[in-house]
Input
Amino acid sequence: MFGRERTAPAAQAPGEALRLEGVRKVYGAEGNRVAALDGVSLSLPAGSFTAVMGPSGSGKSTLLQCAAGLDRPTGGRVFVDGAELTDGGEAALTRFRRQRIGFIFQQFNLLPTLDVMQNTVLPLKLAGRKVDKARARAVLERVGLGDRLDHLPAELSGGQRNR
Output
């Protein structure tokens, strides 16, 4: 599941990180439907930086949630690094997200009883991966949190929590 493409969609560009093909997302019941996404297609190259901008209610969060496999589109297909996210079960999708996708949410989603270092390495532990504390420390130092490793989220500023 979530292997490379099996069918013949548009050819994946070399170094393509994300591709959406005709993605639709409709909310609500018959007579009260809202199309948050209506046939969105895009391709983003690996290593690029992309800003998603628009007015409130324009579908930005829905687009990001569908692109990351957090929400299933009503129609269309989503590919991350060549793997289709729209053709598998929930357990396989959860494994794929855990192993291959990183998220920075609007809410911080930090565990309040864990310090900075513990919150940082928790996803690795949950994925059953080896934790390299020296590397984690180096990354935290690089983003300006080297002196906050043992601080709880409540002891950090909003910007520090985001990092």
Observations:
- The CA atoms of residues 1 and 88 lie 6 Å apart.
- The chain has two domains: 16-100, 116-162.
- The first strand starts at residue 16 and ends at 27.
- The longest helix spans residues 90-100.
